[in-house]
């Protein structure tokens, strides 16, 4: 039987420009990444709302978003529970990402515009900045935005959505061992190498960088 959460998750304070629902959802995803929300524990919307200092409504809406992403499940009359993943589940998710993302970046070799290059370079720099800081949550967020922007250049919306969903499911279950700063930096370097290969038109090197990058991600889960 699942344990009932008897203390609130240490979530970051929210406020600012995005909708409350989006802010809460982002904070919950960060809690999943860092392992503050754990499989087998039931979390109630009212308790989390108290932690945030908001009403329960945006918290319930945000948790439904995570249910739709397959990250948590609703437990009738009790709350929400993190969906556990097995080692096999994670291996299969990473394999699916490789099947989709590796050839997708290869097709972009030699075709990236100067404008797209500037945007991707700025995102790669942001990824590296967060890696140097050792901020895993912000690193993963910047990394996700880099990959989304890159895959969008293929012009296939379904591919981008599928890759986004797989990325969410493979990352948001807590890290088996939080990566050291050096590991984050090593992984962040792949973004620059990938971008350089694409600019040179070297599809093979671009695919190699993407495959190596996904290998780093798997080693942390």
As laid out across the biggest beta sheet, the strand order is 1-2-4-3
Major β-sheet, in short?
4 strands, mixed
What's the number of extended β-strand segments? 4
Question: Mind telling me which CATH architecture of the largest domain this is?
Answer: Up-down Bundle
Order of helices and strands: EHEHHEEHHHHHH
Q: Structural class given helices, strands, pairing?
A: mainly alpha
Under CATH, the topology of the largest domain is which? Answer: Four Helix Bundle (Hemerythrin (Met), subunit A)
Distance between the termini: 25 Å
Shape: elongated
Strand content bin: 5-15%
> Radius of gyration, rounded?
18 Å
> What is the CATH class designation of the largest domain?
Mainly Alpha
Q: Helix segment count?
A: 9
Can you put this structure into words, describing what you see?
It contains nine helices and four strands, in the order βαβααββαααααα. Strands 1-2-4-3 form a four-stranded mixed beta sheet. It starts with a strand and ends with a helix. With 221 residues, the chain is mainly alpha-helical. 66% of the residues lie in helices and 6% in strands. The protein folds into two domains: 3-82, Winged helix-like DNA-binding domain superfamily/Winged helix DNA-binding domain (Arc Repressor Mutant, subunit A, Orthogonal Bundle), CATH 1.10.10.10; 87-220, GntR ligand-binding domain-like (Four Helix Bundle (Hemerythrin (Met), subunit A), Up-down Bundle), CATH 1.20.120.
């Amino acid at each position: 039987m699942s344990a009932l959460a008897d203390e609130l998750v240490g979530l970051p304070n929210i406020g600012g420009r995005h909708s409350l629902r989006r802010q809460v959802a982002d904070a919950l995803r960060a809690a999943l990444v860092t392992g503050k929300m754990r499989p087998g524990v039931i979390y109630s919307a009212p308790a989390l709302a108290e932690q945030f200092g908001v009403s329960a409504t945006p918290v319930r809406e945000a948790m439904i978003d995570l249910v739709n992403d397959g990250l948590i499940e609703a437990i009738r009359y009790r709350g929400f529970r993190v969906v556990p993943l097995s080692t096999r589940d994670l291996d299969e998710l990473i394999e699916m990402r490789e099947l989709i993302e590796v050839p997708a970046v290869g097709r972009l070799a030699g075709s990236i515009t100067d404008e797209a290059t500037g945007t991707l370079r700025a995102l790669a720099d942001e990824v590296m900045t967060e890696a140097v800081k050792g901020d895993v949550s912000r690193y993963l967020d910047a990394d996700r935005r880099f990959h989304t922007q890159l895959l969008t250049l293929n012009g296939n919306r379904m591919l981008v959505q599928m890759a986004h969903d797989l990325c969410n499911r493979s990352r948001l279950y807590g890290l088996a061992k939080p990566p050291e700063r050096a590991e984050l930096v090593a992984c962040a370097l792949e973004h620059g190498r990938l971008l350089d290969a694409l600019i040179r038109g070297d599809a093979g090197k671009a695919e190699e960088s993407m495959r190596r990058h996904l290998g780093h991600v798997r080693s942390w889960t």
